[in-house]
Give the backbone structure.
Amino acid sequence: MLRNKKVVVVMPAYNAAKTLQSTHAEVLEQEIVDEVIIVDDASHDDTIAIARTLPRTIVHIHEKNLGYGGNQKSCYRLALEHRAKIIIKVHPDYQYTPKLVPLALNFPPRSQVALGNASAGEALLRPASGKVKGKGSSQAAQTSAFLSATWERRGKLLLRAVG
C-alpha cells in the first residue's frame, strides 16, 4: 500500500522460467508491492509452474500466444479487476532491475497515467488535461492509448507503469 492505494506489479511473461523467481523476489523486496500479477503468454518452459509457487501472486495463463501487446492488455485488465490503484509493469526476464519500482512512484502527482519506456529512456505522461506529453516508441504510444481508454472508463484512476 502506498498512501492507502493498492500497488500491483504486473509481469507479462513468455518463457521466463530462468529469471522469474529472482525478479519476483526482488520486486517484493521493495516492500511497497501488495500483489503481483503474472500473465503467461503460452510459454514452452516452466514459467507457469514457477509462477504458481510465488507468494502474493495471481497467475493468469493464455492458452494461445497473444503477443506482447495482448499480454500487456491482459496484465492491466487483471490489475484493474483486482482493484489496483497503482500499476507497475516489470519484465520477468530482468530487462531492468525491480529496484526501480520505487522510482515509478515519483512521477508528477498531477499525472493520471505515466508510462516509462525502458528502451527509449523516455516517459509519456497523461496529465489531468488528457494531453500526452513526451514521446517514445510506437509500442509505448499503443500502450498509452490502451491505458488512456482504460483511464477514461474508470474515471480518476491513479495508474502508473514502468517498462
